[in-house]
Amino acid sequence: MSGTSGQSDVKYAISLADVQAAAKRIKGFVHRTPIMTCQTLDALAGRHLVFKPENLQKIGAFKARGAFNAVLAIKETSPQTLTKGVITHSSGNHAQALALAARDSGCPAHIIMPSNAPDVKKAAVRGYGATIHECEPTLEAREATADKVEKETGGIFIHPYNNPFIMAGQGTVALELLEQAEDAGTPLDAVLIPVGGGGLLSGCTTVVKALQPGVKVFAAEPRGADDTYRSLKGGHWVPSIKPDTVADGLLTSTGDLTFPIIKDKIDDIFVVEEEEIIRATKLVWERMKLVIEPSAAVTLAVALFNADFKQAAEGYKTIGIVFSGGNVDFERAVALFKTLEASR
């Protein structure tokens, strides 16, 4: 996974060929999610929006793509090693995705989760047959526990996003989106992709810029976790420190494999406020009848409410919008909606 299949991608962790290989590898193991449209949201945005709802993916998020690609790639090249299991640290969608991929591949999974992770998430991970190792809710504790489990089991650590197989797997979202939009007779002028650790954004950007370089790639980020925005605007990598946002899937910093692709290849990045994220989430629930999580709504929030984006995308007729997932804490979501209504 050196990115050497294209001369221009030698310095990057992945290339188009890696994503295409991932698509073949995971076919039949994950869903080919559909594209969807909504006339109401088109009217609000002032342009045609083509949605890629990864909330309909296995485990309810795009993370299944990268997890299956990583586990199946190891199974191809080192099946004996895989018998010792796979390891990761995650309290969210990657934990469930890796647990499912390991179960379906017949290998153990060890998931390091913070002690304060919601019980519903722990139950989901256990439901896929994984072993949970709890730790204190700090990155240092996660990494130390992962190192300990790796030494004890001999298993393979798979990073949630800063891993070439994970990045390539996530890039299959864009492979499908571009093809589906063309087949529907609505080729894209630009795509909007959320960014947290950058696995999805780096993978999709690799695909778009290789296959359709004229299509713009825009990143979407919450104001309360805008480390990638500050990194790109400041010209140097900035870590995520004490992020505070309802988009809890976008709290992490980009990695040393994901960030170079993002820095060099995306066209721009835009941020949105908390109220805008909640408004976008509620609109999708009401108008599209889709249950998405706030992290997924950040892309639509940019398309609807960000003035800088509207200026940058002036004249663009069709925008691809990636909804990253739909694993929702319903009580929290309803409380957010009520807060939004009360503020009006």
Automatic annotation (TrEMBL):
Enzyme Commission designation: 5.1.1.18
InterPro entries: TrpB-like_PALP, TrpB-like_PALP_sf
Record CDD domains: Thr-dehyd (cd01562)
Named cofactor requirement(s): pyridoxal 5'-phosphate
GO molecular function: ATP binding; D-serine ammonia-lyase activity; L-serine ammonia-lyase activity; magnesium ion binding; pyridoxal phosphate binding; serine racemase activity; threonine racemase activity
UniProt keyword terms in alphabetical order: Lyase, Pyridoxal phosphate
One Pfam family per UniProt: PALP
One GO BP annotation of this record: L-serine metabolic process
Domain Tryptophan synthase beta chain-like PALP, residue spans: 28-325
Physiological role: Catalyzes the synthesis of D-serine from L-serine. D-serine is a key coagonist with glutamate at NMDA receptors. Has dehydratase activity towards both L-serine and D-serine.
UniProt similarity note: Belongs to the serine/threonine dehydratase family.
Protein name: Serine racemase
Taxonomic source organism: Calocera viscosa (strain TUFC12733)
